[in-house]
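Appendix B, example 12.
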Amino acid sequence: MIPILIALGGPVHAQSEAVLREALEGRKVTLKIAMPGAEAGVDLYPSDPQPLDHPAYASRLKDNGTAIRAGETAMVTKIRVKSKHIEFQLDGGGYGTFGDDVSSGVPVSSAPKTKREQNLEAELKREKDPVRKREISEELDDLRKEREREDARNRAEVADAEAAKENLENAEREVALLEKFLGR
């Protein structure tokens, strides 16, 4: 999915989304600039003296590669009208479209307190004997340390999973760009 956002000064009233879809979706357009292979696409501000933020555009091309080159033809596959911008998507179906996993991370949760730990905490509150209180506290400390070690193992596994996920996403992006380049 290669979106182009055209930001307008105020809310969009002149055309409805349905009218724009009917007029433009499915039409072929010839690109005047290269489209980066990024979900963010290209932002244009037609009412500004400088309608294209060239540093941001160059950064997206550098970071994500070129999905569609200048002079190539692409199909308008989706149009969305929002309050302050119109989004045009070109040649939908690449990485980042509906169905692709674009979430930012792998969830991690802390190890829960064991039933034994909960029972010892309750027992510690009720215990009057200082020797027994110390024994309970020491056992609680041991259980907490074990839970902290388990949390550290979980965080390490999540870090490994996030790195693997990022590698997979990069590979999927590269395959989508290569397929686009090869015309598949």
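The chain has a mean pLDDT of 79. The first strand starts at residue 2 and ends at 7.
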